[in-house]
Amino acid sequence: MTRGTLILPGALDTIVAQATAGARSALAVIRLSGPAAHRIGESLLSPWRATPRTVYLSMLRDPDSGRDIDRGIVTVYAAPASYTGEDMVELSLHGGEICPALAINALLACGARSALPGELTRRALLNGKLDLLQAEAIGDLIDARSRAMHDVALGQLAGHLSARLGTLREEIIEMEALLAYDVDFPEEDDGPIAANRIELATRNIIASIDALLATASTGEMIRGGAAVVIAGAPNAGKSSLFNALVGTQRAIVTDIPGTTRDALEAMIDIEQWPVRLVDTAGLRASEDVVERLGIEVAERYVKDATVVMVCGENVDSLSMAIASVRRLTDAPLIAVGTKSDAEEISSDAITALLSLHRASGNLAYIAVSAHTGDGLAPLAHAIATLIQRNREPLSGDDPVLTRERHRVALTSARSEVAAFLEIWTGSSGLPATVAAVHLHSARGSLEELVGILDVDDVLDRVFSSFCVGK
């Protein structure tokens, strides 16, 4: 796909940014990009070597006093063979607060300006080094809190979603070409285009868009994590289970009922799925104002949960907890016997429990011990199975819609293609040239999605959440 040329205000400036976190660290990476990058590098670095992609040791000096700032590693890039497609200089200096600050001040004093959030990647986009979907994938890689989000972002950066949308765009262009041929050259030897050929191609395009739109809920879940809530009565072992699954001592564990007054969250990976694990306050009637607030928070989490683990140490506590939770949600439940090492529940009692709550549906029982770790692996597998239900397994080559922008644009494209199909197969009597307007609009939605159209507000929204230096 080709893009139009867009020169933004300040696009010809040379910009500088620290690409690493501005905290105490071993190294600080500073990027300088733009037409004056090599000139500025030459004026501040000794020695200066302009040979592209050559790594060497050099001293950075203050332009006013000539004092040494730091000795570090320099890498020079020449346009267009750089991340931004411009001349670039990358400095690897010592980390901390003073050294990077002095280095950036020296670069600013020689004519660079501070980069805006995401401006380096934005220049890469405008210079054709990547498309808008790939630019978003870079942001997603940085923000990824799970292996699933990391894998999906890598696939998008590799161009899997771009390629799928590119195929859709080409199919629409081919349809437009067929319609134009039929209108402009009706007397040619090939004869008029068969109506069923256009109809079949249109239905195939709609099916392809629907397949992509079907991944939107999975993409949303991958970005935020599936909400797996631990619920039950106070002192039912919820916080111990939370700590065992997280692997750290995050929740306070005591024998005093009502210890957890608010919800605790942790993002973890369970098999291939990202899980937002939530430990909640015990569900019970309480006159304590603070505890009541915690219970209300717990109820809200349960209502929005993807899966609820209902905890109890015996059949009676489990049965009451299941009834309380089922009044709040229709989500699948896992009854968890949390103290299997101290009090084993008989198989007959478990059968009776499941039979009693059969009407609630989607109920399984697993015994665990947070102390010994017994049962944690089967519990994790049961959670993953419930999350995956009605979802296709993740594949590195299958694109997933990860943002609302993607869903909105594809929904718009589908509506336009469907409107074309209705005219084409209906009895409205509208000419093909009118129907083709819908195909043109559908193609425009796809082009905006990938970034072929130069829409400033779309770019502003995408890059507003980027960190400085990327």
Give me the secondary-structure category: alpha/beta
Largest sheet: 7 strands, mixed
Overall average residue pLDDT: 84
DSSP helical segment count: 16
Query: Ends: how far apart?
Result: 24 Å
Helix amount: 40-55%
> Which series of helices and strands comes N to C?
EEHEEEEHEHHHHHHEHEEHEHEHEHHHH
> Radius of gyration over alpha carbons?
29 Å
Coarse shape: flat
User: Which regions have little confidence, pLDDT < 50, spanning 5+ residues?
Assistant: 1-9, 254-260
Assembly type of the shown chains? single chain
Strand content: 15-25%
| Total E-strand runs | 13
* Order of strands in the sheet with most strands: 3-4-5-6-2-1-7
What's the arrangement of secondary structure elements?
Blueprint: E1 15-18, E2 27-33, H1 37-44, E3 45-46, E4 55-61, E5 68-77, E6 88-94, H2 98-109, E7 113-114, H3 119-126, H4 132-143, H5 147-157, H6 160-184, H7 195-213, H8 216-224, E8 226-232, H9 238-246, E9 264-270, E10 273-279, H10 289-303, E11 307-312, H11 315-326, E12 333-337, H12 347-356, E13 363-367, H13 376-388, H14 404-425, H15 432-450, H16 456-463
Parallel strand pairs: 1-7, 8-10, 8-11, 11-12, 12-13
Antiparallel strand pairs: 1-2, 2-6, 3-4, 4-5, 5-6, 9-10
Helix pairs in contact: 4-5, 6-7, 6-15, 7-14, 14-15
Describe this structure in words.
This protein is an alpha/beta fold and 470 residues long. It is 45% helix and 16% strand. The protein has helices at residues 37-44, 98-109, 119-126, 132-143, 147-157, 160-184, 195-213, 216-224, 238-246, 289-303, 315-326, 347-356, 376-388, 404-425, 432-450, 456-463, and strands at residues 15-18, 27-33, 45-46, 55-61, 68-77, 88-94, 113-114, 226-232, 264-270, 273-279, 307-312, 333-337, 363-367. The radius of gyration is 29 Å and the shape is flat. Mean pLDDT is 84; it is low at 1-9 and 254-260.
